[in-house]
Design goal:
Blueprint (H helix, E strand, L loop, with lengths): L4 H22 L14 E8 L9 H9 L5 E5 L14 E4 L19 E7 L9 H11 L4 E7 L6 E8 L4 E6 L7 E3 L2 E6 H4 L10 H12 L2 E4 L14 H22 L3 E3 L5 E3 L19 H4 L6 H21 L3 E3 L1 H10 L9 E6 L7 H7 L4 E2 L5 E4 L6 E4 L7 E10 L2 E3 L12 E2 L7 E5 L2 E5 L3 H9 L21
């Protein structure tokens, strides 16, 4: 009997539908190996990720671990260049997306088939059985333990506690007690379950240890340190040029990683700080503010610490210039509220407000120049200008970074301080000049500023009773403090 092409196509379609029905029927309660990706098989895959394209030990590290034998993968954006003579059994996992192939990590199970994975730094030598002991320590630990580390070389690891403050964009390290670690300092092999690694948003970001430790801390994962160590390879000293390249690449990667993780400030165990946010040479960390609610508030965060630092610096500079010129100024609005409540800028505020006597504008050459209509940069790089929105002035942190202090010119009329520009803020009201006779010093943002003589009465006139004791976001109609 001759089968026509139509009959063959119909038979194929029926067979495919039957297979799909079988998969659907067996899926939830059965184990259909042909219908879904297989679960991880026992064993440990070694991933080599932290290495440079120059002056590396990648070939030696790969050969050492491939001899155990265990699966070994080199993970890199592109194939290492200059080419490295890797053992034939060592695979390459290219991470840079390409238009003609699926996303590299869309299906990690196609690359890493074992249940556990070890992230091994360049220059490590294998020890038979140690990866398996790390795996056993992970599986025998309590339910919170999701990560096991072992040192590389003779220098012991330093145990660190890691506390994340997402709302403040900050990661704080401190010396940890033995066995109580969220991170370690020193060269180490990291082992975890494959499904845990590839469930992370940035599973293979560099530097690998920092990326894993921070993401693990976000999830409350426990960490166990093994006493046994992997040997470090004997390597020739890195050349001065190679060291310079490596340090620059490491700084670039760390900045990119912190940007991705939402960390703008690291406080190290010795008290030093690393900053990753904006500076005088860059734009500020957030864009135009709408409805008095910056975007970071909607994301459940407060003002980035780099922005607060810039605002403090700008406020202190402006206050010093005004005092030196004889311009009478005082803390206004939310800035006075922050001073009364905290002695500092409110942690979610995005500018500083100062009132000034309008008749004193001509005493300050930078204000006078701005009043003439020309933005002017002072000797320390702060930019003074007349605001486009009305009759007031702004002093920006720099031409690039528009974090600013607003200067509001008031004048007395019948014993009441008033001004010509009102932006419709609820606290934007006239007040008796007696609050300024005299002005009084008040701690604010790391220096002593001038303020109205009865801050509580002044603030309750503007914000209502209990303003100091009852913090609230600038526009509760958009978002309230209690919603975080």
């Amino acid at each position: 009997m001759r089968v026509t092409p139509c009959q063959a196509a119909l038979a194929g379609a029926i067979g495919l539908n039957l297979l799909l029905l079988y998969c659907a029927w067996r899926g939830p309660g059965g184990s259909p190996p042909s219908c879904r990706a297989p679960r991880g098989v026992p064993g440990v895959t070694v991933l080599l990720r932290d290495f440079e394209d120059f002056e590396n030990d990648l070939a030696g590290t790969a050969r050492s671990f491939a001899s155990l034998p265990v699966p070994v993968l080199v993970a890199a954006e592109t194939a290492p260049y200059p080419p490295i003579p890797l053992p034939a059994e060592v695979g390459l996992l290219p991470l840079r997306p390409a238009a003609d192939r699926p996303p590299p990590l869309a299906h990690p199970e196609l690359h890493v088939r074992t249940r556990h994975v070890a992230l091994v730094p360049d220059g490590t030598r294998a020890v038979p059985g140690l990866l398996e002991r790390m795996r056993d320590a992970l599986e025998e630990g309590d339910g919170d333990t999701r990560l096991v580390v072992a040192p590389v070389g003779s220098v012991p690891l330093r145990c660190l506690e890691l506390r994340l403050e997402p709302r403040a964009w900050t990661a704080r390290y401190s010396t940890g007690a033995p066995g109580v670690c969220q991170a370690v300092e020193g060269m180490a092999v990291l082992l975890l379950r494959t499904r845990d690694l590839f469930a992370l948003p940035f599973p293979l970001a560099r530097p690998v240890p920092t990326a894993i430790f921070v993401q693990a801390a976000f999830r409350g994962w426990g960490l166990r340190v093994m006493p046994a160590a992997f040997p470090a390879a004997r390597r020739p000293p890195v050349s001065p040029h190679g060291r310079w390249k490596a340090e620059n690449l490491a700084e670039t990667r760390r900045r990119r990683l912190m940007h991705d993780l939402g960390v703008k400030r690291e406080v190290l165990a010795d008290g030093r700080e690393r900053w990753y946010g904006c500076s005088k040479e860059t734009a500020r960390c957030f864009g135009t503010v709408h409805a008095r609610t910056p975007q970071y508030l909607l994301a459940g965060r407060w003002t980035p610490p780099c922005c607060l630092r810039a605002l403090r610096e700008t406020a202190q500079h402006v206050a010093g210039v005004l005092e030196a010129a004889g311009v009478r100024y005082w803390l206004e609005g939310g800035s006075l509220l922050g001073a009364a409540r905290l002695g500092d800028i409110i942690p979610w505020d995005y500018d500083v407000d100062l009132g000034i006597y309008r008749e004193d504008v001509g005493k300050c050459r930078w204000l006078a120049a701005a009043a003439a209509g020309e933005p002017v940069e002072d000797t320390e790089g702060f930019l003074w200008e007349k605001a486009a929105e009305g009759d007031f002035y702004r002093v920006h942190y720099s031409r690039s970074n528009r974090l600013h202090v607003d200067l509001w010119p008031f004048y007395p009329r019948g014993g009441v301080m008033t001004k010509d520009t009102w932006l419709g803020h609820p606290q934007d009201v006239e007040f008796p000049e007696s609050f300024l006779r005299p002005r009084v010093p008040m701690p604010f943002a790391g220096f002593t500023a001038m303020a109205p003589n009865n801050a509580r009465a002044f603030l309750e006139l503007k914000f209502g009773p209990g303003a100091i004791e009852n913090p609230e976001y600038p526009n509760p109609a958009v978002k309230r403090l209690g919603q975080d």
